[in-house]
Amino acid sequence: MTDAAAIRSAEAKEPPSYLKAGRTVASWLTTTDHKRIALLYFGSITFFFFIGGAAATLIRLELISPEGRFFTNDGYNRLFTLHGVIMVWFFLVPSIPTTFGNFLLPLMVGAKDVAFPRLNLMSWYLNMAGGLLVLACLILGGVDTGWTFYTPFSSMFSNGYVVLAAAAVFVAGFSTIATGVNFIVTVHVLRAPGMTWFRLPLFVWTQYATAAVIVLATPVLAISLLLLMAERLFGLPIFDPAHGGDPVLFQHLFWFYSHPAVYIMVLPAFGVISEIVTCFSRRRIFGYTAMIWAILGIAVIGFFVWGHHMFVAGMSPFAALVFSFLSFVVAVPSAIKVFNWTFTLYRGQIYFEAPMIYALGFIGLFTTGGLSGLFTASLPIDVHVTDSYFVVAHFHYIMVGGSVSAFFGALHFWWPKITGRLAPDRWARFSAILMYFGFNFTFFPQFVMGYLGMNRRYHHYAPEFQIYHVTSSAGAAILAAAYLLPMGYLTWSLFYGRKAGDNPWGATGLEWQTTSPPPRENFVEQPRVDEGPYLYHPDQVAPFEEAPERRQQHDPQGKSDPTRAGMEE
Amino acid sequence: MGESIFWLPAASEQGEQVDHLFFLLLAVSAIVTIVVFVLLVTFAVRYRHGSKAKRGKLPNLMRRELEIGWTAATAFLFLFIFWWVSSAQLEGYSPPPDALEIHVTAKQWMFKTQQPSGVREINELHLPVDTPVRLVMASEDVIHSFWVPAFRFKRDILPGRVTQGWFTPDKTGTFHLFCAEFCGTNHSEMTGRIIVMSQADYAEWTAGQPQGDDLGKEGAKLFVAKGCSGCHAPSSKVHAPNLAGLFGRKIPLADGSIVTADERYIRDSILQPRREIAAGYPPIMPSFQGVVSEEDLTRLLAYIRSIGKETP
Prior knowledge:
Chain B: It is an enzyme of class 7 (translocase). Chain B: Residues 97-208 form the Cytochrome oxidase subunit II copper A binding domain. Chain B: One of its GO terms (biological process) is ATP synthesis coupled electron transport. Chain B: InterPro entries: CcO_II, CcO_II-like_C, Copper_CuA, Cupredoxin, Cyt_c-like_dom, Cyt_c-like_dom_sf, Cyt_c_oxidase_su2, Cyt_c_oxidase_su2_TM_dom. The structure holds two protein chains of two kinds. By secondary structure, chain A is mainly alpha-helical. Chain A has one domain: Cytochrome C Oxidase, Chain A, CATH 1.20.210.10. Chain A has 17 helices and no strands. The radius of gyration of chain A is 24 Å and the shape is globular. Chain B folds into three domains: 13-91, no CATH class; 100-208, Immunoglobulin-like, CATH 2.60.40; 215-309, Cytochrome Bc1 Complex, Chain D, domain 2 (Orthogonal Bundle), CATH 1.10.760. Chain B is of the alpha+beta class. The model of chain B has no long low-confidence stretch (mean pLDDT 87). The radius of gyration of chain B is 27 Å and the shape is elongated. The two termini of chain B are 49 Å apart. In chain B, a hairpin with a 2-residue loop joins β1 (100-107) and β2.
């Protein structure tokens, strides 16, 4: 970055960091370095996060009035469809795996790169191709089916660019498959000597489980979208009941992917939280093996609960019971994880820096989101709340309160490793707390209005719900600020942030044993592993004092004057 | 409607049951949430960095037994909730046989309803209080969904398939009806009113409506007009099943399976007669797909249902 930094690293006779191993645009666009590809992905998903976020802002603005203000009915329908499609497939699904997963997985297992570096680059280009299709769809006029593309509306009746949107998701699906295959093979064959399966950090386990779900579920999405496109383009009778087709078949196919997709979005978040909670409480994770079984349990059972999206769509009572039962079962491992994180704090030495605040916020929001899942798994209650704002609140608690909080936690935790700079902690803690309260402010009222009868995807609504919508929109303004703040101070830290050092948090894990930022080949010497993960204290003994040599305390930079911090450089 | 912005009282027997379950779950969730938050805050404060709280080796018991303990406890709790809510669901699965039968046809973007007396309404439905109501629904275009939040009742309305549901309103008043499944441009305007009246008011209201023929009678006319009677009348020479006494019976099919002759089967047999052929009959019936509208189908169904009690 700066010349001084270049001189210093030259002085230390270390290989140049991955950021300096080529400075041209071409060196980025043709890179096969997993760390650079992670940054390419980081750029693209940030871009899509802000497009999807802009759509959300417009939705909340529009819903302040029961009659709407700015949009026609069609305009509003296109808006929430755009929000859903972009947030699900161009932000949430790729978010943690393609950025932090790409960056950290090889580092954490002690490898030089992922197993198929060129496939990794191709995955980003596929994602870009999908992204361009979705942008084309947006510019041409959008699509109005909702992100779920339900037939026969999408195949026979919609007047939006359904095929374009479906093609965008179809193409982007292959990019996540490529990432999934890469991760599976990397974990299987590229682990450093001594890195056994039960020494893997939980982040690696979650990436592995996520990759397996991606590889198994995404092809089903591809098939259902192809069938949808065939019916819409060529009139092949597949879902159209007038020709003996079954519109509910599409829902089964769609949710066979899209419910596991929820776990694609949230499993990586579990991994992030496990890393952060252990590091900032200086404790081994409570129940490491139980955590692994919980991860695998969620990944497997998650495949058999899709039917709970269709309790009111015409399903036999027996099938409904089975899906309801399995939906309760899949909640058990999630609950176990919450208890384990909580008990990891027990007898720890807890630091409250920004990543930890995000992680604690995650646990709170995920608990609420998970418990509301019990309501939607219960048949009689789900009949009432399905397609209402109750469900909207439920999945936003999991995906935004959960996954996005974890994403920001990961961003602050590994920022020093990725950039070599520390973020100003005081600002970061402030935005973490702001995010927690802004989120609850936005989405908690939606639980209430959903139960009272506020319909999902309604542009105009009954006036008694206005108070809830206004509250929710006010909360959304706070939430938007909490998402924008990091853009500012993280960018600032790139130039003025303190040098991080190799291991600013005193964390275990191989990624902290190399330089920050790491060299192109990750490690100067091939690392060897002879101990389990999360050894923050000797086996069986909780620390009376945490080991000071492992953790360099740093000043929260919010305190210091930015101009002075700049001069120190 | 709308007295309180904080609560919507249930206005059906089933709705009150749903509310009970809801509050039970709310209590369970509140307890779990409080436990998790209290533990988080207590641990976070007590074991903050540098605090004087005693730390030391974790008792061995804490590791395995705790893990197994809360796994088992959570699993039991969840299974108990599952059992409780599902048994409530199953109890109310089948409608009572004497339920008031209301036909609903949904299309972009309206609900058309028809009373047994033949009275038709658009985006409105008048019902007597304390009477079980059975909805028989079909869609003319895309998927819609019939949601009455005050009844805690919702059922999707599908094209090409009859869906049913039932509830018993137990409060008089006017309640929202919403289309809950996204159905296109004016989805949010596909709303209506359910007006629940006392039994006397309902009788008076029905008497005051312009008298159409009731559904069954209209269906009987269609049965002749569309040519059904040409084969299915008892006097016909064509080898086709006589439909009197058919409704609700178990019908053996040519492939050896058995179906109940309910709305679904009869409807499918009109539209796709070769899908499920009754044993002993040649597959000669033509499809009436596109020949009879959804509303005509409703009338035909009502007619076949009405002659279901006769002995053939």
